[in-house]
Each structure stands twice: as structure tokens, then as C-alpha cells.
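Table S2 (text version). Query chain:
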Amino acid sequence: MKNYDIVVVGAGPGGSIAAKTAVDKGYSVILLEKKDLRNGGRYKACGGAMAWELIEKIKFPEDKIDRIIEKLILHHIDGDIYTKQGKGAIIWRDKFDKFLTDIASTSGVEIKQNEELIDIKKTDSEYLINTSKSKYSAQYVIAADGVNSPTLRKLRWEKFNKEDLILTITQEMGLNKKEIDERLGNDEVHLFFGIKNLIPLGYAWLFPKKDKITVGWGNQIGKIKNSRKEFSKFLNIPLVKQSIKNAELIRYTPHLIPVGVRPMLYNDDVFAVGDAGGIVDPISGKGIPYAMMSAEIAIQTIKYCEKKGKEEKMGEIYKKKLDRSFLSILKKKSELRKRIFQNDEKLKLFLNLWQNHRSSEIILKDLL
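Corresponding C-alpha cell output:
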């Protein structure tokens, strides 16, 4: 059995950033990933839209970007169209995640791929972790293994509330770049809304990549009666139908996204980060930057509490740091989401405001 200061489970953006930050602060770290990270990384069902600020912050190479975008086109099923300006990038998550795991590895993180967590137990002083290949022990655990986190499930943490889960369906459709540009524009992404006639609580999207279109749909899980039938309704919207005409279906993937914070984010030297903690924007579904920030904050909390002798206040300090950084706004956005999706009139008012304001600005100025 090998001993480490910190074990990180899950090599997504949150896991890689947590592991790198921990090594940089002098901790011995192991990063466990159940999938194969070779040959470009693992596929992840994700639209892949990134704010340009994040691309610049991490120096993500432009040759790994599939498409640079300048605006979002917001479609209401009734025919109303709204435009939101803003530079961003469309990427493949396997390339993005692999870029971050390579940075972690270069920093000195020991990465174990193809190693699934089988069991985790707490002794008096440390956690014992059994994987499909080996055994490890560590004082701290960073659960960065997604909304269904096996780590937290095995530790019997409370589950997400159903109203805080969105079921998404993602289709990757192959099509040549010329036809994608003609049908969807060369620098635009398209979002689709409509409470009464499309999606009661959620939205759908067409994200053009280089030679593929990511077709996505997401609805609150408790409001779904027949996901395939409801997804098909989106596919039959004239613009959508025309956009994917003669495209080749390459992949069909259902996936859960949390849109509400888990009832507990810390317990007994275990931290939940990213999707595992439900640390996701409940309106847009954006999660990657919050996964990365929560991962950094988790490691900063460990270092601070050890230095100040405040280990018994670790959970309280982690939550305060998250709140000061972004979590308090995400919680307010959960309340805003309830107001937005009351009816189509409220939804259209929000879409109109969203053209020129960030959702956090709409909250802070009480514009809705």
C-alpha cells in the first residue's frame, strides 16, 4: 500500500487542477482515473462552449480549438430570436481535459489511469482506497468524479435532490465544415427555449465544431415523461432538422448535470468539487470554470487550516471561501431559475435581458 497526503478521484478539469495545486503546495498526491487517458483522452458528453477568458487564462492552444465563436443566437420556439455577443471557443472535452492532465503530470502529479475506485474506508487517521489495480492511503480525499460520484456514494453522502438534476442528451453529428457554416454560421452557437412547447425547465442547443455538430437537449429530470420522444420534438424543429440534414450520427449519450449544490460539500477530510458537489451554474449549465475554482479552493483550504491550526474548522472555511468566490451567486441563480421558468412570458423577458447583461448582473440589479 502506497501512502499519500491527498488522493484525487477523477481526472476531469476539477481533479487535474486539484492535483496540480496540491503538488505545487508541497503535498504528495495521486490522481485516480477509471478511464484511459491515452490517444487524446476520454470522450465526455459536453457541448464544449468555453468563455474566451478561460481559454486565455490556461493558455489553451488555438490549434486545439475546433471553432472560435463571437455570438449566441437564442431561439424561442414561438419564433422570437435574441442575440448575445461574446467571444468564446468550441472545444472537444477530451482535448481540453487531456491538456489539463498533461499540465498536472508535468507538475509532478502521479496519475493512475484505468484504475476504478472499488472501495474507500476511513480509519482513525486516514482513508484506505482500493482500486481495480492497487491499494492506497491518504489523509485527504478530493472527490472530483462527477455528479454520480462513486467516492461520495461509497462514503454514504446524501444524494442530490431530484429537482437539482438535469438529464441531457447529446448527439454528435458528422457533417462537412462548408455545410455547417452555411446552415449555422461560422461563428455562432444556437440555444433553443420554450416552456410550453419544447422544454419545461431547460434548453436545447446546436454547437458547431469543425466537421461535426453537437446536438444537445436538457430538462429537469422530474419533468421528463419520455426523454427520447421529447428530444425528438427538438430534432423536428425546422431549423434543427435542416441543420442536421444528411449528417451522420456518430454518438448518442445521455448524461446527468447537477444544477443545485449538494447538501454537503465537506465532511471528515473529504471535499466535493465540481459536478460532484453540484457546483454548476443552474441557468447556463456551465460547470468547468467552477470545477477548477472549487478544486483550487479545496487545496487552499487544506493548506490554510494546517498552517493556522484550524483543521477542525476546515468545512466551515471551505464553504466561506467558496461563497466569497462564487457560490453565493450560484445559489441566487437557483432562485432566479425558478422565476425564469414560471412561464414563457418570464422566460422571454429573461432572454431579452440576457442579450446585454450577465445573469449575475440580472440578479444583483434585480432586473427580472
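Notes on Table S2: The longest helix spans residues 314-340. The chain has a mean pLDDT of 95.
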